[in-house]
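Aim 2 progress update. The chain analyzed this quarter is reproduced below.
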Amino acid sequence: MQDRIPTQIIAIPDTDPIVYAIRHAEYNGSGQFQRYVYLALADEPEIVGTPLNNETLLKNETARLRNLAGVASTINNFLWDLLTNNSHGIMVSELSVLTDPGSVNNLRSITYQEIRRRLGLGNTLSTLPVANGGTGVTTAQAEVARLFPTARPTPEHFATFASGMANAGWTTPQQARNNMGLGNTLGALPLANGGTGQTTLAAVRNTLGIPTLPSVGVPALPTSSEGIGSFIGVGNNNVTSITVPSGGTWACVMLDFDRFPDHMGNERTWIRQISAYVVPGGSIISSRGGNRVTGFCWRVS
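Predicted structure tokens:
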């Protein structure tokens, strides 16, 4: 960019800073020259402002960054070249030689591709390569095709990556189980892998060496005999003790309970204590504190 340099100017005396008046021509309505007159700004501004010249709009040093000089170094040309021409890249400072940020001598031209290479984004202006953490492709279909060059054999196959994204493949459910330490089978978990290898309780007992347990029934409770195995029960909830029949030894279970009104005034039965006894025949087992009891006794000898 170049400043206009006039030749016909005069300095106004007694001005600080010096004010210059520039020559203008005066013409009449017919376009005939009349005279020269020298004019200067005399508005006495509060703020002088920034002058519009080469130094403030586009310095020569700045224009040279886009290979512009002379009359071609206009602001418009500079912006146009900056936005449309990437053949010689953008201007950045070279860290290795940058000693004076204010000196254009320490700036050099570098391409966008070189910038990407230095940033570890691949020596390209295309998609990010696999080697730099990208996929190298621009569509999901292309990425799937790159990772899995062969189609999935069956819907049951799993996608696997042996070591890194570059080693993708397919594996069967059985192979997946074997890789997870769950046995090379789709059946019951083998004994060697922490299972039983069986699918029924009988087969599990046989594998683990557990014998079949005999069936044990619950004998009927006799009520008329007083021999071993005889049984008596107390069903009347108004008694306060249990009298054991004479003879032998008896095992008894007794429940102490009483009745109290609840918060609504309704009478409720509350169990106070559950007791177990082994007593000789003829014993009388009384509740503690005179509470009502219920229970049963079984002759054991």
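Residues 57 and 75 are 7 Å apart (CA to CA). The chain is about 15% helix and 25% strand. These observations will guide the mutagenesis experiments scheduled for the next reporting period.
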